[in-house]
Amino acid sequence: MTSLALWSVGPCEAELRPGAQGQGVLIDMLFSGISRGTERLVFEGRVPDSEHTRMRGPNQEGDFPFPVKYGYCAVGRIADGAQAGKVVFALHPHQARFRVPDTMLAPVPASVPAGRAVLAANMETALNVLWDSGAGAGDRITVVGAGVVGLLTGYLAARLPGAEVTLIDTNPDRAELARQMGCAFALPDMAATDQDVVLHFSATSEGLATAIDCAACEATVVEASWYGAGETPVAFGGAFHSRRLRLVSSQVGQLPAARRSRWSHARRLGKALELLSDDRLDDLISGETSFSDLPARYGAILSDPATLCHRIRYD
User: What's 171-236 look like in SS3?
Assistant: First the structure.
């Protein structure tokens, strides 16, 4: 059995093609979300050869670079069985109807609208990054890059008691969003330089240089960006060593070592969904497109720097 799905079929080319439905519980898609950073790398064919296996998403079809069915922010309704009608989240590409094992489904809490639940994978990443950072109550925390994951990480960090959280971005229009997330805002040339924890999301060498410059002596800088193929210069020639900075990578595919014995991926995803019970987070949905119109609009959505989480509606 097949159902229409979005496929990246060549550099910057997308089509609706049949995709395998899979095995397990039948799901009718309600919404999916475009995760701009990763999906843009896939769409442009910039997944490094060395990462073709590690970058495979759950329920992906095809192989990198092309053709490939890719995505991981799916919200749908169970269509058959005892749980029919229940709204669930799954890590699945953009596809109208699919089947997955019930172990891959996370129930969407009643307090979270289905349209907002597309942020679950981004919130899960934000939670993992915050854990990897070791940030705590009272810390001065800077987030460089106010995309959707950066904003969600700032939102979580601002809930730490006494934490002073600042979002840094080159786009001054992100200032109001930062305020809504409970954070201060600054342009890069106004960034404070005495931060206990710095979290970097911009996927640019300039952003990473800003993150390093913001860190106080013996502070932690977490690199959460995914750069794809190519080289990224790193500013290690300045005060990086004299300040004894700690540079930490973060990737959502693994739980932090300090939590791995107690937390499962399912527990983390469930917590991420709970954390979406806040109406302010609707402002991170920057647009909506019908699934039937997606191939024609996909490239423009991915290339628009104003895009946060773009939602796909399945009519």
Answer: CCCHHHHHHHCCCEEECHHHCCCCEEEEEECCCCHHHHHHHHHHEEEEEEEEECCCCCCCCCCCCC
